[in-house]
Amino acid sequence: MLRFVVRRLLQLIPTLLGLSVLLFIWLNRLPGGPASAILGEKATEAEVARINRALGLDQPVYVQYGRFIKRLIEGDLGTSTQTGQPVMDEFLLRFPATVELSLMAIVLAVAVGVPLGYFAAKRRGGWLDVAAVSSSLIGICIPVFFLAFMLRTVFSVNLGWFPSYGRLTTGINATEVTGLAVLDGLLTGEFDATWDALSHLILPAIALASIPVAVIVRMTRASVLEVLGEDYVRTAESKGLRKGVVRTRHVLRNALLPVITSVGLLTGSLLSGAVLTESVFTFGGIGSFIRTAIDGRDYPVLVGFIMFIAMAYVLINLLVDLAYSLIDPRVRVH
Amino acid sequence: MRIFKSRVTRAITVAAATALIVTGCSSERDTTEGKGKDGAKDTFVFGGAGDPGSLDPALASDGETFRVTRQAFEALLEHEPGGSELVGGLAEKWDSNDEGTVWTFNLRKGVKFHDGEAFNAEAVCANYDHWFNWTGTYQSSAVSYYWQTIMGGFAKNEDKDAPKANYKSCTAKDENTAVIEVNKASANLPGGFSLQALAIHSPKALKAYEKEEASAKGDAITYPKYSQQAGTVAGTGPYKITKWNKGNKEVQLERFDDYWGKKAGVKNLVFRTIDTEEGRRSALQAGDIDGYDLVSPADVKTLEKAGFQVPTREVFNIFYLGFSQEKNKALQNKDVRAAIAHAIDKDNLVKTQLPEGGVAATQFIPDTVEGYSDKVEKYDYDPAKAKSLLKKAGEEKLKVEFCYPTEVSRPYMPSPGDLFELMKSDLEKIGITVTPKPAKWAPDYIDATEAGGCELHLLGWTGDFNDAYNFIGTWFAEYDKQWGFKDKKVFEAMEEASKEVDHAKRVKLYERANEVVMDYLPGVPVSSSPPAIAFAKDVNPPLVSPLTQENFAEVTFK
Amino acid sequence: MPLLSVDELSITFTGRGRRDVRAVDGVSFDVDQGQVVGLVGESGCGKSVTSLALMGLLPKKGVKLGGRAEYDGKDLLTLSSNAMRDMRGKHLAMIFQDPLSSLNPVIPVGLQVTEILERHRGMKGAAARKEAADLLDRVGIPDPTRRLKEYPHQLSGGMRQRALIAMAVACAPRMLIADEPTTALDVTIQAQILELLKELVDQQGTALLMITHDLGVVAGLCDQVNVLYAGKAVESAGRRELFAQPTHPYAHGLLGSIPRLDAPRGEPLRPIRGSINDRIDWADGCAFAPRCDHYTLECLSGTPQLTEPVGAGHGVRCVNPVLTGVEVKTLGVPAEQAVDAAAATAPAEPAEPKIPAQAGPEADGKAETDEGDAAPEAEPEAEKKKDAS
Amino acid sequence: MSTKTDKIDRLAELTAQQESSSGASLWREALKRLRASKMALVGAWIIAVFLLLAIIGPWVAPYAPGQQWRGEVFVNRAEFVGARAENWFGLDHLGRDIFSRMLVGARQTLLLGVVSTLIGLSVGALIGSFSGACATLGGRVGQRIDSVVMRCIDIMLALPSLLLAVSVAAVLGQSMTTVMIAIGVVQIPVFARLLRGAMLVQGGSDYVLAAHSLGIRKRRIVLTQIMPNSLSPVIVQATLSLATAIIEAAALSFLGLGNPDSAKNPEWGVMLTQAQNYADSAPMMAVYPALAIIITALGFTLLGEAMREALDPKLRG
């Protein structure tokens, strides 16, 4: 087990190295430079040259790459040209918000997607099935930012049910423990903070969950359909087991295995979605930070984010594999 | 352990359930928010368009930062509320010698900094000396832009390209008299003394600042820690900064009870960042914020209809269509430039694209700035004339590249892409072929225009203080790649005006300079328009300022 | 009174936009306490569907059931699904064909045994585990306590089938249905499993409905045999009677197509022509007619009735029954001996008179099923994993 | 590995199996099932209408997409002109006819979808078949190469597609071409995986073994046997990719990376993004392009999914 983990982590190194070369080449191919991004309207040539010198951008490429790598190894992803703070600090600051939002979205997606997929499969061809399948297809086809936008207009501007932006209402100064506002509120007993955070989370989470829900509904449905046709379900039925037992122990337990994998690996689409939803709701996570980085051509942030995702992807992959081996006795990691 | 666990689980369940119920109920949410013990609303939330860059205004050069710091820091001079006249700030009176090199300030008495320090002449000098003695990264123009603009370089310039220092000294003549000397008269004074970047900090805070160093590492400049969190910075303003919650994108300020002037109307002031126009609008409509700036012109009417307050500012900016004559030689012909000027339907642009209060421009400064001339040549909308001018120049098949920035909203141009579309169709009407060259605002677009890489481009300027040089001086005082022309008449007119120390005479010279510039026509001034600002129904809004220097201490709730 | 009495059972699959398919068309048989009744036929003949119908395991939608199936005075076909749930596993139990796919792969074997004890016998925790271990022990699984913790993929094929049998007999049901319990197993294991089943029937007096295509199994185990063809019983007789005198041309052909060691070299096998797909509707005549060597025009005049041309209790659905017995001259031994030979060889020396299709057991469920292209040369008994349904 | 890859691999596996088992008849089978599928029918209809609009749209559009109504109807900022006789869908924020822009936009949208899918397909096919060829025919070194390539491809799949697009746009500047390339790049890993999967399955299939044992050169086997047989999964994936491309394009516009020359060549995504700024005063301006995007994407998704189901016996009843 441990060897497996170590080996997988070692595999990460060449991947990240390769990625770093690509990113460095990309950075060097970029037009413009950080100097003018810093200076804005007021840049003059002399000032640009001064800044470039200060940043070491006048040195040979290999020296710059060397420094780039050295800094990466030190966990230094550079400094944001927009905020003037280390990219790593910015990520760490905003990471909990995105984690919270993603978790909420995944929880929502699972809570809605699994039962829906299950019953769609059970009543295959029935109205529920048709509704579930078609709404999941439509869910995939609605641009996430448009959905977020609609949700905000309807539930926040028109109905006033939920706040239209942000993570917490001003004036609610929750004590930070984990950085996850909802959890912090619970841990410290500040329940008003918890439900304030929750109410801020709901709309973005729904928007963000739209694609995962669609994926999970269809995965669950296909998987349940497959499992329902399996002999062991018939065996379970032939034993006269109660419906609930058959459903949970024999159908869902098996049917959810592929769904679990997919949930773990929705990272990519979740982060893409987070960039869009967070920026619609001005949710102070990595997503909206990346959005402003895109607008402001904050390349250190973008590069750092790509490295970050690549790492997260590999790690999540690893976690999913480990989790899988715990759930499915047929899979054992060596 | 076990007890703890089960209690937590129960708490989670209960909380989640209640939360769902409570959030499902709209009235509940609105009433619990931002209220003090007595039930009156005591928190004013204002939506900004971007996060501030630092809490030390001396390190900043952008409006979003200044909007926040302005509530907590005051400079020697200020602008009159709702106008652009210079009035006393921390200095009650000011004066200069005839050469404009020695500036004497009679300071206000009984002023206290947020950290309890007393305000006096020594504090003023400590600030100016602090800036003058900046070293290292602080000398980067990215950090100390305004200092360098107003006062030139530093005690020890570390970079040979840095401007020569114009600041000479500051002496505390007595407790309440500070004297600031400069080497050379400058058109930027006394206006510069009003800049938020030169606002006065507590000497105790300055000492703390000096322990930290901004650093340039990697690809960008890292701001010092003290400027990134509340606690160290201390000014004299009606509010003190209590918390900067970057994760929640908000800066919290609290009423400073020892403020020398009228105390702030609302106890808590909060600036929250909402990056998009429609996001800010939604937040105001949903009742989540009490006001926001940079209202999209299209939203003004609907907001007003719904009962929101959208007070109109006076104009203090200029939006222009620039020509880079070196990039396209045809533009070196005055007839071609005039043809383009006659082709642009400015009134249509103003009417359909700019906020209420916008006006078509005739020269490169708004009419609110001293030095505005009524006698400049006006190039009225006249497609027929434009066509004939083109014909005269022999450029009937003129082709131009037209740059415009994307994804940006500047106070003088709310949506550049749309303005571009309208101008493009104007130009096409007189037979000019237009190639669109869109680019991201920073750095791509800025780079391109600065380097003279854009034949036609859209840019503008919002004044820092009421002096025409702050506008035209930055463009036409000498050869500039952006414009790519050398015209003796223009340069001389500028030089003459900037050297004049006498205020009234200088204004006259500016008028003349504007006439010369418009005669030469280096570009087409298009419009001056006030960025719209909106407030909730239950707010008594502050006097809106043409320089977007609203003082939120004036705010009260109805 | 028989324990289970199936009377004119018919099962029709209906589907939107598709023609109704009558998979079982008026099958009747009885099973007495302690009796082993065989349902024999090639794939698609309706035997597995019959068993599923009796267990109430057919889907509600798209299936029409007709006739009666009385168990202990209750009609299994009309019982509510909850009542049926109470019956299953407790009174009626079933053993399936492919032990690997019939066991839940991600649950330890132990839980799969104890869950039925919990459900029907109210046993919990350690008691249930102990009983489960006893059960495994009883069906001949060594080291049962360890096995309880293992997962199906860790057991051998024979052990898996034993585990399935243990589950089936856990509540000492009075009626056991075994659907091709040996098909997926190695031949040596097959014999052991049959032996085990036989023991259980003998010891507990359980009634066993044996569904198979394997005549060896029939000969070794069954008291009463029903040969099914295209959803109808074409011949129904005691084991000895059937083997002595297979009267329906189909049954006759089935027995005749068993390769035998004692046949002379070079003697060709005599398979039944065509496949079960070459059939006509029972309403129009004998469904077997297209493949029958003996058919006459008479065969196409309406459904043939079940008659008893060779003796009481030996029903045959044919207008031209074969009355000569299995072609004794080619077998070279008297009919009576043939039965014994088959019976004797089946469990004990299984390698010998087996039906060819069984040589390679289908180890897992992933094997292809291409029902459509069984060539005439192919063995008609080539039973596929999945019954046509 | 992920759901995305899972589906892709499964598709490759299935079609490859079918091809090798009995070729054309299975195509026919699938086609028959497809024709019976309501999903496919709805999808095909939507696509047909869309294609028709894309082809004739610019010709039948009543006005030039860039034409602006000035003065007489579009004044005073927030007052938008709604639907009326001359302008069926009303005027946009610059006084342009929305109906005409929608029609012209259909072609832009189609062009964008097709070109970007082709980019993704061709580059993806190249990488995928290279990797697959290495894995099946290249021995141990080949397998090493294959695993490295596939790991990179997996990471590419994991990266948010928007970031890839931003990266491309950053280097190439902003234009319609950039948008197409950016979206195409996002599709590369999908197609690469698909083709590699198909090749691996087929590489081990009987007829390839047979060809190999007959002494046919490896390269020839790849070219003549494996490649043509990987066609059907590619068609399915390409259909789905068209939907993705349309949605991605909208997301790119939202992030300000869309087609900049939207006056003459309006594209639905850009139209939607622009309309959001006016959502309060002219909501219909957003509704038209949004519906168009959703419905068109739905059309391609429906057809693609129906095709996938038709090919996959597991998903059938």
How do the strands and helices of this protein lay out in sequence?
The complex is a heterotetramer of chains A (334), B (558), C (389) and D (317).
Chain B: H1 2-23, H2 26-32, E1 43-48, H3 63-69, E2 77-79, E3 86-88, E4 91-96, E5 102-107, H4 121-132, H5 145-151, E6 167-174, E7 177-182, H6 203-210, E8 215-217, E9 220-222, E10 239-245, E11 250-255, E12 268-273, H7 277-285, E13 291-295, H8 297-305, E14 317-323, H9 334-343, H10 346-353, E15 359-360, H11 383-393, E16 399-406, H12 416-429, E17 433-440, H13 441-450, E18 456-462, H14 469-476, H15 488-499, H16 503-520, E19 523-528, E20 532-535, E21 539-540, E22 556-557
Parallel strand pairs in B: 1-12, 1-13, 16-17, 16-18
Antiparallel strand pairs in B: 2-3, 4-5, 5-7, 6-7, 8-9, 10-11, 11-12, 13-20, 14-18, 14-19, 15-19, 21-22
Helix pairs in contact in B: 9-11, 14-15, 15-16
Chain C: E1 4-15, E2 18-31, E3 36-40, H1 47-55, E4 63-71, E5 74-75, H2 81-87, E6 92-95, H3 99-102, H4 109-121, H5 125-138, H6 144-148, H7 157-169, E7 175-179, H8 187-204, E8 207-212, H9 215-221, E9 224-229, E10 232-238, H10 239-244, H11 249-256, E11 306-307, E12 315-317, H12 328-331, H13 335-348
Helix pairs in contact in C: 4-5, 4-7, 5-7, 7-8, 9-13
Chain D: H1 3-36, H2 38-60, H3 98-137, H4 139-158, H5 161-172, H6 176-203, H7 206-213, H8 218-229, H9 231-254, H10 268-276, H11 283-311
